[in-house]
Amino acid sequence: MARTDSIPIGKKGKLAVMASGRGSDFEAIVEASEKGEVSYEVSLLICNNPSAFVIERAKQHSIPYVIVDHRGKDRTEFDGEIDDVLRETGVDLVALAGFMRILSPEFVKRWEDRIINIHPSLLPSFPGAHAHRDAIDYGVKVSGLTIHFVDEKTDHGPIIFQYPVNVRADDTEETLSLRILEKEHYWYPRIIDMVMKGRVKRVGRKVEILE
């Protein structure tokens, strides 16, 4: 059975976000906290790409950030550096938001039930980096987003939440992506908050959101 302990009443849970690119999900996560819509605080951004725009977003919001460059390192060394930073910061939960590196099984095990990811399809359909293209090419009528716990396999962990988005006949990768991204920006901060508050219970692959 998974951890279901919640953050003590009156204490804001400390969240770390790991991202590699533009950081629009990161921005939504931060803004939800700043507006008081959620009870967590964003304590840290970890980025593996020194030129990623998400770093500028962190600066704009005065969020501490650490660049852990993956180049020239094996997975053990890279993940070890990230693990050290997370533990030093004392975070309660890690949210992946467009983090384009595969984490080692050892790292995932250390952070079991404390690391979640968002993916732009209704998993298990269309895992991987080209979910929108794959959905359109396959001809599905509905795509959407999935928020899930991270396990040792890519886009595979127990599903916490899914939200459907209709695929239109004239959709391109860009138009479908934009509509799904809008829903990501709304739902990811709120599901993060539920996990922080202990409202998410996992037993094996079955996950329940408690009232």
Describe what you observe in this structure.
The chain is α/β, with parallel strands linked by helices and 211 residues long. It has a single domain, classed as Formyl transferase, N-terminal domain (Rossmann fold, 3-Layer(aba) Sandwich), CATH 3.40.50. Helix content is 34%, strand content 23%. The protein contains six helices and nine strands, in the order βαβαβαβαβαββαββ. It has helices at 24-34, 54-60, 75-89, 105-110, 131-138, 173-196, and strands at 14-19, 41-47, 65-67, 93-96, 115-119, 142-149, 159-166, 200-203, 206-209. The chain has a seven-stranded mixed beta sheet, sandwiched between helices. A two-stranded antiparallel ribbon has the order 8-9. The longest helix is centred in the C-terminal third of the chain and has 24 residues, at 173-196. The model has no long low-confidence stretch (mean pLDDT 95).
What is the compact description of this entry?
Helices cover 34% and strands 23% of the residues. By secondary structure, the protein is an alpha/beta fold. Strand 8 and strand 9 form a beta hairpin.
